[in-house]
Design brief:
Helices cover 33% and strands 12% of the residues. It has seven helices and five strands.
Length: 199
Amino acid sequence: MATAAVLTGTLTGIADATPPGIPSGATAKSELATLKVAPDGSMSGYSRTKFPHWIDQGNNCNTREVVLKRDGTNVKTGSDCAPTSGTWKSPYDGGTWSKPSDVDIDHVVPLANAWRTGAAAWTTAQRQAYANDLNDPQLIAVTDNVNQEKGDKSPDAWKPPLTSYWCTYASMWVAVKHKFKLTVNSAEKSALTDMLNRC
């Protein structure tokens, strides 16, 4: 759990975590307009184990370790790929951390939200690909407490504490839903529209 280990956040040379494939605000608005609006489905049958993660990504690294290396600064790892040192700045809240245990890898569109909005009909292989997607803005290193507060909430119920990140967060959320053909509910679409209007 992230506690007093937080650093000042004013350290120079520490970049925010940045996943690949974040669209511009204009592109995200266009993609949002194409998403099917529908009520969320049931949670019946849901389990995180139906989205196998963190899988082997080669070089002794699993998905979590790859994202920790990608999103951190000066990350050093042992032979097993687990980080031994580094610094991580969470763009959700601006917290800066030097212990990997204080950092969670967030699924931008949570697994349970994906289940309710289309993934319940997927194969296990499709869900595994979703849960370990390194090519789209779906995985990001953030402060663990903040990620736990988010849970499986959509943007109408939870937004990053830093309002300056809302445009980017909404753009990432829309990109993932668009890529994986997931639905949005009306409250979620309204919240995303408001956030993209900050872009």
